[in-house]
Amino acid sequence: MATTSDIRNGLCIKYNNDIFKVVEFLHVKPGKGPAFVRTKLKSLSTGKLLDNTFPAGRKIEDIRVETRKYQFLYPEGDIFHFMNTEDYNQITLGKETLDTPELLKEGEVVTVIFNTEDSMPLSVEMPSSVILEITHTEPGVKGNTATNATKPATVETGAQINVPLFINEGDKIKIDTSKSSYLERVKE
Fold first, then answer.
1. Where in the chain is the domain with CATH 2.30.30.30?
2. Could you state a single Gene Ontology molecular function term (predicted)?
3. For the whole model, what pTM was predicted?
4. In whole angstroms, what is the distance from residue 88 CA to residue 158 CA?
């Protein structure tokens, strides 16, 4: 058993007969009243987000997890196929176990989190950033760069990302997978 002081991003806990992963947390100590921990939890069975507040010092049931590296092979509808990079065993996971499936490119190496009790895959952690090529975007309008103006662009996986006006089709960009946002242009 752990307490609320052990809460961190990525921690898997059992709560309300379901397994959740902590996405965000904030320890709050108001001037008046007891301290508490505000969390954003993601259900690993349904993929839904839940905002929850725990009183400080409350016991929580954490789940022992193990991580393994897997390479993404291909999607098949809402099913995603992965291969273990060490022993080449293949597994299939549902779309709800991935945080940002629209940014997953074939051949990308991800971290799969397994429950150590029953060896069931719980979730897939994407790398912090991915490099993808722009397949479609409108040309930027000259003279419209006084502000941080952005335009929509489609990347090779089909995801829509807002990018600065100077980005053109064929450019490779680095994307933050946690926010699905543009970070920088990548030069070869």
1. 2-62
2. translation elongation factor activity
3. 0.74
4. 28
Who has greater pLDDT, 47 or 109? 109
pLDDT at 140 over 80: no
pLDDT range class, residue 15, cuts 50, 70, 90: confident
Which residues of the chain form CATH 2.40.50.140? 65-125, 129-186
Query: Is 80 within 8 Å of 63 (Cβ atoms)?
Result: no
Identify the CATH number of the domain defined by range 65-125.
Answer: 2.40.50.140
Which residue has 């309008």 as its token pair?
141
Structurally, what CATH architecture does the domain formed by 129-186 represent? Beta Barrel (2.40)
The yes/no answer on whether domain 2-62 falls in CATH 2.30.30.30 is yes
Please compute the mean of the pLDDT values over residues 116-142 and round it to a whole number.
84
Please spell the DSSP secondary structure of 17-86, one letter per residue.
TEEEEEEEEEEE--SSS--EEEEEEEETTT--EEEEEEETT-EEEE--EEEEEEEEEEEETTEEEEEETT
Q: pLDDT by residue (tens digit) across 21-71?
A: 888 899 989 888 899 999 999 887 777 888 999 998 889 888 888 888 999
Instruction: Residue 139: name the closest of 163, 160, 173 by CA.
Output: 163
